[in-house]
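Extended Data, panel c. Modelled sequence:
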Amino acid sequence: MTSRAIDLTVGMGLLLGPLAYALLLEGETVVVTEYVPQPVVVQPSECAPPPPAAVEPTPVVEEEPEPVVEPDPDPEPEPEPSDRIAFAFVNEAGIVLSTEAPASWGTGRLRKHAGPGQFRAAKRANSKQVPQSLWTQRGRTFDLYGAAGKVCTVRVGALSVIAQHEGPSLYDLFVPDGEWLEEADPADVDRVPYEQFDESSKTPRDIRRKVWSYLGKDESAWLVAEPLDDDSCKGAVWARDAQLPAPAVLHPSDEPSASSQQFIDRFSASDELAELRASHEEWKSESGNEVMADYDDWEAIATRSPATVRSWLDVDDTPQRMELNFGEPGEGCGDGFYSEIERVDAMVDGEWTSTDSSTGALAIFDADLDGKWETLHGNDDGTPMWLTSPTLEQSWSLPEQFYCPC
């Protein structure tokens, strides 16, 4: 064996000897493996919140103020139509829009129509002839008022033109110039003509034609509107466009009060009453005992017809007008003594002031809102006939032939 081979053998022995020895040992096995790091899986609930990220501070920005927006000016209110009616009479004919209607405002056939006149004739209104300011009232709403205030609201229906004649009969219509009837019964010569006229000889058609024929001579007709939609208007005496502001209204009271008693006391001490009593004593002495036997003395008159007061109160029940009636009107044809006194006082600037108004008002109100009261009066049966007012004064009358019974 060569020396090089011997060195190699010895060297390998020295290197492999410990390894061979280790392989011959029992009971322990050493496994050498390579270490590979594994990721660690952590459940979400176990996650710790990440550290807060660094946040750059937000610079403070000054906000510009909201621009001030000026509100639009209120629109100018629409002007009220000038044809709004502040006052109109109300009676069985309807709402009286005009008391000065000519015959040309009517068209079509004559027909009957309700109204205060004893004899009546009517036609439907002619749209081509009635003024536009009145024709446009159709379809509008009106408030209707009685003595104590508003009683209903109605819509205006059809318009009609109505002619009327009060009478007392048709004698002056059918007999020209008031002539006596040629065929009058001799036994009736002392009777006035209208008592002899036989109305039954004329048909309703004849009467309507005759009443209508007098339009344009001395009299005018009415333009009336039919109130619709409401049957609860009992007691209405005047009407007003419902679109206008509500009027101030006084309501009547016949209940005794401190104010009414003070009014009676002032009247009892007045010169007016003293003068009336003195006139009665003078009339009594001049008439003689024989005549006076048929009439009452002053005490009897004062007891039978004492002073009574009706107060007209505002919304606060404060009296603004007071009407006083005393005595009796006397008998017809000038017989007897006229002892009646009517007096109306008004509250003016905190004091009672005597007026020249008549008692028996149907309603008192301020229709045009000028602070002054309008007073509505009527005839004997309560039909409204005239309005006393500084600005709205109106009245109507019906054609009639008056025959004095005396």
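DSSP finds eight helices and 17 strands in the chain. This feature is highlighted in the accompanying rendering.
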